UniProtKB/TrEMBL annotation:
It comes from Micrococcus terreus. One of its GO terms (molecular function) is DNA-binding transcription factor activity. It holds the Pfam family TetR_N. It comes from the Bacteria. InterPro entries: Homeodomain-like_sf, HTH-type_TetR-like_transc_reg, HTH_TetR, Tet_transcr_reg_TetR-rel_C_sf, TetR_CgmR_C. Keywords: DNA-binding, Transcription, Transcription regulation. This is Transcriptional regulator, TetR family. Residues 4-64 form the HTH tetR-type domain. PROSITE patterns: HTH_TETR_2.
Length: 173
């Protein structure tokens, strides 16, 4: 069995705090208590709260990039835009984790965090809002956040049907 690194243990504790409470609840003390590591142990890996936020964002970015490549079967640079968007739609078809959604919103308050996301998104998504495929990614993003912004959560079947409907809007390769 692989041992979880201290850094990964801290990241998981941060995600748990955000998931259960909020981004505002994130302090060195709360992370130390949740991770079972001393405050100085947290600071060793993440000297500032901003470093914690950057670390969690990078974790989510790496996780999504892995999912995108698994679904697409190749890295972004080996795929057409339609193939990349197909992977985006499939990976965003599930309900957003609360922590990931909150971090996505929070990242806009920190100048370089959106840029971290933009690097991945630029590889996998259309950046031109006038592109005929841009509405497809907007639908996928809306589906991803749906249950957190709408009063009625979607069932798994409804999600699968919506993913299929969105995928039908992509050109066939």
């Amino acid at each position: 069995m692989l041992r979880t690194s201290r850094r990964q243990q801290i990241i998981q504790a941060v995600i748990g705090i955000i998931e259960q409470r909020s981004v505002e609840a994130l302090t060195f003390e709360s992370v130390a208590a949740a991770a079972g590591i001393s405050k100085s142990g947290i600071i060793y890996h993440f000297p500032t709260r901003h470093d914690l936020l950057r670390g969690v964002n990078q974790h989510f970015i790496d996780q999504w990039e892995t999912e995108l490549q698994e679904v697409a079967g190749a890295p972004a640079d080996q795929l057409t835009l339609a193939q990349r968007l197909r992977a985006v739609v499939v990976t965003l078809g599930g309900n957003a984790d609360r922590a990931e959604l909150l971090m996505s919103l929070e990242s806009h308050d920190h100048p370089e965090l959106p840029q971290m996301w933009a690097e991945l998104e630029d590889q996998w998504m259309s950046t031109d809002p006038h592109s005929e495929l841009y509405p497809v990614q907007l639908m996928a993003l809306g589906l991803w956040a749906h249950d957190h912004v709408h009063h009625r959560a979607l069932s798994e079947k409804e999600r699968a049907d919506l993913v299929a409907t969105i995928l039908d809007r992509l050109p066939k390769d």
